Amino acid sequence: MTPLVLKIGGEALTNQLALDEFLTQVKIIQKSRPVIIVHGGGPQVEDVMAATNLSTEKVDGVRATPLTHLPYVIGALAGIASQQLLAACKKNGLNAVALSLADGDSFTATVKDKKLGAVGKVEAKSNETFTTLLNSGHLIVLNSIGCNDSGDSLNINADDAAVAAAQVVNGDLCLLSNVPGVLDQNKQKFATLNREELDKLIIQGVISDGMVVKVNAAHQAALSLRRPVNIGSWQDSSALKEISEAGEITLGTQIQI
After folding, report:
1. Is 42 a known active-site residue?
2. Considering 159, 160, 172, 236, which one is annotated as catalytic?
3. In angstroms, what CA-CA distances link 2 with 30, 135, 197?
4. Do both 87 and 184 map to the same domain?
């Protein structure tokens, strides 16, 4: 079966009851298809930054990672957030392995823009490590810390990491957050949206603010993967259950090519 890549934000790790329910559904999905969970760690990074009296830096509105901040970002993402999720998997009976984008020579990472510091972009390289782990029944928990060919660690956007993970295993991708999907003016969820429809809704202001970024990223991911990408909620147990029972992904809103 086609592997399923689920991207969740770091805030998901702060709600233990909801996280347990999510992982319960993941365990069921695993019976019919391999699963990779890619996680962010925004709240964890902010907590570490606050504890060390460091402030978030932005360049042209984009979050930067100065080299002096990098050890703390790595600690928050590959340490705190990764281990929180790994522990929750253990609690819920999932045989999970925690990886970064630097493991197994699976990805190639390069500096995105020198102005942003140690922020990188990532591309799929080799599926050997992931295929071996998935075929042996492991759940892969993937953080977004990468490494370039010179051995320099890089902070990668978690959505970009999820796209690369889906590319490396030729899998389906769901970008999950706290929203049920893309909503219309009456707060009803769209089942599917294509590029033309997205542009129209953005011009009309129906899709606005952070959702504009999210749908554009999902559409770019769909083009890259050559398959639809879903935007939905990691707390939508019924939709996650349907993946395990019917094999179809009806979760949230499907962004089509």
Report:
1. yes
2. 159
3. 11, 12, 28
4. no
